[in-house]
Write a structure and sequence with these properties.
The structure is a homodimer. The first copy, chain A, is built from 14 helices and 17 strands. Chain A has about 400 residues and is α+β, with helices and mostly antiparallel strands. The first copy, chain A, folds into 2 domains: about 290 residues, Bira Bifunctional Protein, Domain 2 (BirA Bifunctional Protein, domain 2, 2-Layer Sandwich); about 80 residues, Anticodon-binding domain (Rossmann fold). In chain A, α5 packs antiparallel against α10. Chain A is elongated and about 95 Å long. Chains A and B meet through β3, β5, α4, α10 and α12 of A and β3, β5, α4, α10 and α12 of B.
Chain lengths: ~400, ~400
Amino acid sequence: MRYGFEEIEMPILERYELFAQKSGEELSEQLYNFLDKSGRRLCLRAETTPIIARIYVENERSLVKPLKWFCISRLFRYETPQKGRLREFFQLNIDILGGGGNHATAEVIACGIDICRDFGLTSKDSVMLINNRKLMEGLVQQITTVNAIAIFGVIDKRSKLSPEEFQNALLEIGTSKQETERIQAIADTRGKPSAILEQLEKTEMNELAKEGLEELRETCEILDNYGVLDYCLVDLSIVRGLAYYVGVVFEAFDTRGKNRSILGGGDYTTMYGGKPAPAVGFGFGDTVIGVILEERALYPSFESELDVFVTTVEPSVKPTAYQILSRLRSLGVKADIDLGSRKFRKQLQQADRRGAKFAVIIGPKDVEEKVVTIKNLQSGEQETVPQDQLASFKWT
Amino acid sequence: MRYGFEEIEMPILERYELFAQKSGEELSEQLYNFLDKSGRRLCLRAETTPIIARIYVENERSLVKPLKWFCISRLFRYETPQKGRLREFFQLNIDILGGGGNHATAEVIACGIDICRDFGLTSKDSVMLINNRKLMEGLVQQITTVNAIAIFGVIDKRSKLSPEEFQNALLEIGTSKQETERIQAIADTRGKPSAILEQLEKTEMNELAKEGLEELRETCEILDNYGVLDYCLVDLSIVRGLAYYVGVVFEAFDTRGKNRSILGGGDYTTMYGGKPAPAVGFGFGDTVIGVILEERALYPSFESELDVFVTTVEPSVKPTAYQILSRLRSLGVKADIDLGSRKFRKQLQQADRRGAKFAVIIGPKDVEEKVVTIKNLQSGEQETVPQDQLASFKWT
């Protein structure tokens, strides 16, 4: 990867406890767990963060920090399949572990924006919403004595609720009517980083909120240096459902607004065997981006491209055809041949259908003269090339 | 792939029955199965063949045959972990479905040999052992009335048994002493294809054996055209444990002989929902090849190669450094930066340790003059390049 992240592989099965303890409540209900033949409770991985933490802590001494890791993994969640949510899906995870502070956070966010850009999503198509958990916790503490995590749980579900449902959900966990309104006003705060940061800097706040605001400010400043701030908004309703986030949090969305988040992540503390370490990362699932690319007709084509299809004018030349095929492949050329007993004309059709750039044509006379005829399937041009000079032809 | 195979993806969980019915006895004992939350018995895939059969039959009408598919998948077998065997492993599968006869078989074997060659294994390091199940079944029928599949089961385990144990195992399933000796003589038959085929052609045999011999002969002839017959031996002890093979079967081994097979496969009939289709393929696991490459010091290096490491002479130039970093990455250059607050000298050390080809050096004067200093970390040469001409520098 051009960002200098290194790929790591990890097991697909883990002990149930690794996920049950560390993840948020919603996720722990969705764990795909079972008893194995020896009676241990195992779990198909539902996210990679706890596994990365385990690998990091187990190997910490031998690693040069900060670490930049990525992995593309199959994940499993036992929930009702629906648009943008499947039980088995792929997720790209990007993590920086063991240091880097706001620089690491900005690097990870810039990388996420760049991936959206590589998929063809411009700053008009997608938006990166950024917030900070310390800032939010500080602001919430100034308003109410109700536990901030409980309030975050409600804010995290806000996009699925009507304003009334949102208010009722807050009232239910114990905030007063006035507190509810003030929380709602915070959750409604969204805009260009410069404007929102300026507004927040004028607000009176406690030390925790100030600390969070400073993290958010520096992260946005570095993102500006990366040249990606036009993709970003500060949005105080982004709090992330999972329990382990501690600083900046972010989610990217389709600007049309009707899909779930494309990617989500933030600063967190890895914890394994009681050893904490600073980290930042995101998960980028294949399901939502698939729906968005489909809707916007940006879905990439996966047609295989063949360089050459080797054809035989009559069956007697097949031995030579296999020799040519084998030589082409050893030159690194993507080459194929009809494995059946199709007639020459059908073989040429097959060459076309497989998208080959060239057809190599071998007839009895070619065998005799130790040459092949090469037909450019786009231009229709043909030329004759000696069999021992295949390496100098421009195939690709 | 230069052989023109197309990648397919498949689920990691399947219904237990899909594997339990189709696979051999040994494998069905090793299935990693469990009850899911709704009480269905599911199974972590232990092999891909039954899944490929299901996908093939479900989509047969819309596909142009023969199909050339490959997949690299995680597989699971609940057995005792040991050298060359793990409970979770990766396997490359190559299959041609829906036709091609001996041409498809030879194509698949040639592909397997080429992969070994690409790993650095010459015909002195590895050998492809080839046989035919019809030939073997015919020969066994001429010797004994004991079920051929039962005899194949014993022959398949021969490499793990002493000659006495092998004889006893045959006697146990009901062959007489004389029959046992004749079966042993067959299983001991191994040599260059030309020699063994000549010897077999002189042997009197029934129609089934003759048919198998003809398949074997033609396959070897095509392999000779591919130029890979020096990798091949005919070995009548290769029968493959799984139940679905019907024609040519093959296994590749390290010539030092102490490791399990590198890859194994053959002609088989896919079966799903009562619909059969001809197929040929092999499985190539990561575990055995890993051991062999380690032993022969051929294990490839996975060091990441960075093109550029961006360094800053003092913290004040960081904004420019991030702009340069971002521009380089957008040019497709693999570039990284120190995310901490290391001193300039330490950053250069980091560039070296990360294997970067170049260090981009940015100091206050460079910022002023809108240039960067590019240091070739191998030659030590330095040159100054305007910041707006980064695209024309040869980075990779």
